[in-house]
Task: structure prediction
Amino acid sequence: MVEVFDSSAFIQSIEHRPKPTSTVEAEGIPLIDLSALNSSDTGAIASLAAEIGDACAKWGFFQVINHGVPLECREKIDSVQRKFFGQSVEEKSRVRRDELNPMGYYDGEHTKNVRDWKEVFDFVVEVPTIIAASPEPGNKELTMLHNQWPEFPPNFREACEEYTREIEKLSYKLLELISLSLGLPANKFNNFFKDQTSFLRLNYYPRCPIPHLALGVGRHKDAGGLTVLSQDDVGGLEVKRKSDGEWIRVKPTPDAYIVNVGDIIQVWSNDKYESVEHRVMVNSERERFSIPFFFNPAHYTVVEPVAELVNEQNPAKYKAFNWGKFVSARNLSNFKKLQVENIQIYHFKESD
Ligand code: OGA
Ligand code: NI
Result:
């Protein structure tokens, strides 16, 4: 990853280091069968929505099977992902992101100011994706995001685009089920995603000589709407259990997707569904691959608790904020290690 290996940037402070043995796997996040989506039985859909609502409220995370994403599609992106990251850093750097274009290959990400033990490749779903150019509230300037595609492997772009179309379909179904589970019309949130700022990330976690000191991704919450993640059979994703704060390992389940609600759904639901902290452990024996799809609304979306879910007994817990300004502030800070904390949704929390 770096020429002269210096591991100090990766070292987590003692309280955040992974525990090698104590993570509980027995009672994992809920596993939900989406087959009912293929039936016209409204009762079956209502009970599926209720099951998803329970998982969102209790865990903020769940896995889905019988989701409708063809296995071939997943195998194809998995194969090009391995080929791409198998190249030298020099080769991969031909599509390296820079200050002007945040899409492409990157190996220097920091979470909470500690470097992550990973490499990534990001691409946006809408081309171009329109975002705010500056985090300043008064600045109305917009900018466009374009993708950079590597030449190798030759079917890389095609595999990525095919997978994206399928995972996007699944994400809309999940969004609709979540909306139903909140007692809202199924399509309540759909319009926000018309000019989506969604992106896909290919994650590569190389073998790590210091797995007890470093993390693949440090503890964080996903900022957007919904995340739909594919992980391989190695395992390493841990979710903070809401009931006691214990880190729970998400057991790899063949052909399942892991779904979690992001900060935006937390705000829309007025804290009914919280965006839960998670992190990724690495290990010294096997490299690991994962693919999160970050399903995010249009830049101009004003994010605030849904009117139908607030009343005098349950007042809005957040001030409205502009999603594009939030992203823009994050993008700026992502590029460099900051001395101060990144922008977070709790900065928009109403004081009680
Ligand atoms: C992320 C993330 C989990 C994983 O990229 O935001 O949480 O298992 N990834 O790679
Ligand atoms: Ni995440």
